[in-house]
Amino acid sequence: MQKTSTKILNTLFLNVPITLVLCVFAQMLSIWKGQAESFSMQMFGINCIVAYISATIVGLVFPSVPLGMAFARKCGAKDGSLVFALLMNVVVNTIFTFFLSIVMTFVNVYIVAGAPIIAVVFGVIENFLPIWAVCYIVSFVFSPLCQKLAIRLTE
Fold first, then answer.
1. Cβ neighbours of residue 74 closer than 8 Å, sequence gap 6 or more
2. Within a 10 A sphere around the Cβ of 75, how many other Cβ atoms?
């Protein structure tokens, strides 16, 4: 069982690359959709802060790692194998992406842009898969590094 301090540090560390890439990629999606005029460094900074805080809450509240491990084991993957890590990350990343997509779309579409709530629903549906794919890669690459750093600092 992982120490609480290790879990907290791992969550804090891993959320840095995930939220930065999420915000950059979401901004790129907006630009590709012809909404480049809506970009501002101030909003980008606010988005990074909101995404980081939201991701930290999700990481500390939801048992995504145990659920991911259970899923990987149920699929027959051996603990510590590449297949295990890939399968585990499917669940972990899906939970993070689900909540972050809702929060960030709500903030940017409903609160900032003043669009109707249905636009939030369609925004989440439209952007979920591309954001999921990008965040999956980032979390898969950075997760072992952040975990090792968190363990080294707490044990």
1. none
2. 13
